[in-house]
Amino acid sequence: MIRFCKRCLYPETKPDLWFDERGVCSACIGFEKRGAVDWAYRREQFVELTNRHRAKGGSNYDCIVPVSGGKDSTYQVVRLLQHGLNPLCVTATTDSLSDIGRRNLQNIAKLGVDHIEVTMNPVVRRRLNRLALTEIGDISWPEHVAIFTVPVRMAVQLRVSLLVWGENSQNEYGGPEAAQDKNVLDRRWLEEFGGLLGLRVTDAVGIDGIERKHLVQYFYPSDEELKAVGATGLFLGHYFPWDGYQNVLIAQAHGFEVSPTVVEGSLANYENLDNYQTGIHDYFKYLKFGFGRATDIANNHIRRGRLTREDAIALVKRRDGKFPWTYLGRPIAEILSEINMTLDAFLVVCDRFTNKRLFMADNRGKPVRDQDGNLIPLFELR
């Protein structure tokens, strides 16, 4: 029997989540605290902090903002421009960039900023995708690492002291209490919450022909390099109320393009549009923990009063955890072919990472699937 949050739909199986005596999860508790925040004062803090980092006489960029081309990174750029900052937008190229993702990335440059896109060796990248999928069940591990290392490396190279990230995911989605209140992204935050999942970059060396020299962009700069530049990274969501739906409205007003249909495995047409592999990533979250992206989105709307818990349950039951036959309209066989994996081999990996306490299995321990390829849960969302 799985325990679910009394207020939203997160299960106790979610990593780093905790419940209070009311049965309310840490993500909801973190959101509750926002009501007591003096946002006007936080904005003053943001202005004061960014003013200290502004380049004198336009001699350099004021800050670096990591961008994927999604709604949130578009929103981040808009906010920075509103405050008169001169940001350099830095992209660590998405693992399998979609057509709409490319257009949204190009749109960010059109907002009136310089933009650098760093594309790692695609041969090595796909080997890393396959390695991470088979070893830790996360095809997007290389992307999650590069998102946090490439912009910081660029800050060191260009001697830009401030990086502006989006939301603190530990606050938005529930994590350790100390991590929820952080306003700075540093090495410790990256190592604990940045998606490494126990797989270190050095672990890939010597596997499938991967050498250390192939992984330069995946390594975080040394403490000495960071200190020499005075580099610090702040969460924009600490200073401005963070709301993904608000962000997409602002982003759309500045040229951001949404999907014409609701994204597979989701409840929305405005999130996770840039990477064809995201459907696989989200599916493995469901295999391991019994919830997927539809639950994340539903919970964000529940907390903000836009969706009742009862309606959210009905929607999540319809959308969450379905086998990812397509993502953004692209067949899974094509997505897997990029990492030299067949569908049969993929199913073997799926079975290995499926949580047998959450899903039905036969007497040999093999997960049971219905005629559509979907797992049969042993729990009921309620």
Helix run count = 16
Order of helices and strands: HHEHEHEHHEHHHHEHHHHEEHH
CATH architecture of the largest domain: 3-Layer(aba) Sandwich
Rounded to the nearest angstrom, the radius of gyration is 21 Å
Which word captures the global form?
A: globular
How are the secondary structure elements laid out?
Blueprint: H1 26-33, H2 39-53, E1 63-66, H3 71-82, E2 87-92, H4 99-110, E3 114-118, H5 122-136, H6 141-158, E4 162-165, H7 169-172, H8 177-180, H9 187-193, H10 223-229, E5 232-235, H11 244-253, H12 278-289, H13 293-303, H14 309-319, E6 326-327, E7 330-331, H15 332-337, H16 343-353
Parallel strand pairs: 1-2, 2-3, 4-5
Antiparallel strand pairs: 6-7
Helix pairs in contact: 3-11, 13-14
Task: Give the structure's gist in a few sentences.
By secondary structure, the chain is mainly alpha-helical.
Describe this entry's structure for a reader:
With 382 residues, this protein is mainly alpha-helical. It folds into two domains: 38-238, Rossmann fold (3-Layer(aba) Sandwich); 265-382, no CATH class. Helices cover 43% and strands 7% of the residues. It has 16 helices and seven strands. It has a three-stranded parallel sheet with strand order 1-2-3. The chain has a two-stranded parallel ribbon with strand order 4-5. A two-stranded antiparallel ribbon has the order 6-7. The chain is globular.
